[in-house]
Amino acid sequence: MRRTIISDTSCLILLDIIGELSILNKLFGNITTTSEVAGEFGGLLPPWIEIKEPCNKNYQSIIEASLDKGEASAIALAIELDNCLLIIDDLKGRKFAHQLGLTIIGTIGVLVDAKLAGIIPSIKPILSKIKSTNFRITEQLELLILKLAGE
């Protein structure tokens, strides 16, 4: 069974801002997200991003007591699907998803995987573009990322 990849908003927005949204498609093929995430994204999503809603809206509402609507919907959908990977960057959301036993990765982890898979030749230029946005990367994390990516 093919793994379902669910993305929260921050990954989509960040990669779109720096002109690298296609990395998701090259690495994973089709991506799934929710209408809440699509609304937070605010633009037209590429055709390889499918919108799917969690069936249990009550559970989503409970999660919304702790997280924003996009994160809550993405986590609620991930709970309902077998064999999925949730792309989520927000620390509070990551902790919440981890406590629920979900498999998670962040945008930076996606970029490391893309480098290791040969989809991008180097992670350094992408990190430079990311640092020009409001996405925060500590110097320690940047060194770790470069080490993991073999750079």
Shape category: globular
Task: Summarize the main sheet.
Answer: 3 strands, parallel
Number of distinct beta strands: 5
User: Strand fraction band?
Assistant: 5-15%
Q: If strands are numbered along the chain, what order do they take across the biggest sheet?
A: 1-4-5
Structural class: mainly alpha
- What's the pLDDT, averaged over the residues? 93
Topology pattern, helix = H, strand = E: EHHEHEHHEHEHHH
The appropriate CATH architecture is 3-Layer(aba) Sandwich
Rg of Cα set: 15 Å
Distance between the amino and carboxyl termini: 33 Å
CATH topology: Rossmann fold
**Helix percentage:** 40-55%
Low-confidence spans: none
**Tally of helical segments:** 9
Structure notes:
The chain has helices at 9-17, 22-28, 35-41, 57-64, 69-80, 91-99, 107-116, 124-131, 139-148; strands at 4-7, 31-33, 49-51, 84-87, 104-105. It has nine helices and five strands. It has a single domain, classed as Rossmann fold (3-Layer(aba) Sandwich), CATH 3.40.50. The longest helix has 12 residues, at 69-80. The chain is 53% helix and 11% strand. The mean pLDDT is 93. By secondary structure, the chain is mainly alpha-helical. The N and C termini lie far apart (33 Å). Strands 1-4-5 form a three-stranded parallel beta sheet. Strands 2-3 form a two-stranded parallel sheet.
